[in-house]
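Review form for a predicted model. The reviewer records the input and the model, then writes brief findings.
Reviewer: anonymous (R2)
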Amino acid sequence: MRIAVIQLAYDDSESVAERTERAAGLVEQQRGHDLVVLPELWSAGGFDYRSWEERAQQVDGDVVQRMAQAAREIGAMVHAGSIVERPGDETGPEGKELWNTSVVLDATGERVATYRKIHRFGFGGGEPKLMEAGEDVVLLDLPDGSRGALSTCYDLRFPELYRAQIDQGATVFVIPAAWPMARVEHWRLLLRARALEDQCVVVGCNTAGTHAGTEMGGHSAVVSPTGEVLAEAGAGEEVLSVEVDTSTVAKAREDFPVLADRRL
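Model under review:
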């Protein structure tokens, strides 16, 4: 499976419409890939909390529709990153109306999966203050027939989520993020840890640039089920193109059957 990881950089000077068109253009340059992945909250601004209300959209809003067009154009599955979702007719258990929602589109532009971020970052501010928490573990079939599992950024710090995903058959973790430069070494370490401990392929797509006063960490990466970094970006805008053999998951689990020894 050929994967394109688009490490999008942006600042505060670009409108949502301009950024959406630029991101769609980058997707449309990835013809020949099977899966294209964008970062978390790239349209709304990962740390631009003050703009989330006005930039919230439904899952069939302008951003996702443009990404669907790009997916159809190149005939590839597109993980469109995440949006600030406002369903319009739903309020969560905490009384909020916003979610951090990832959207995956197939090669025809049809929506095949959505995932609402379970672990909200902010320690009482930011996401926990403004957004509801997701509740569902979400998996889908990837273009090569492997089982992909969805999570987002801060979720990466919670290994029990990934254990739940492998118990449901996951072999590939797809993780969009808006992870800051201040903690980028945590990002790099945790991507490898999740790959190694769960013997899965990990596709981590981070954000670059500086917005809302926060420098983003970049260093998107694809990691093998043995913890080997197959490709890693730098700190700026970059597209990784990686050929991934997901059959290595079964081989890794057969050669070193650690998962069979789980007790808890």
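Findings: The first helix runs from residue 16 to 28.
Further findings: The radius of gyration is 17 Å.
Recommendation: see findings above.
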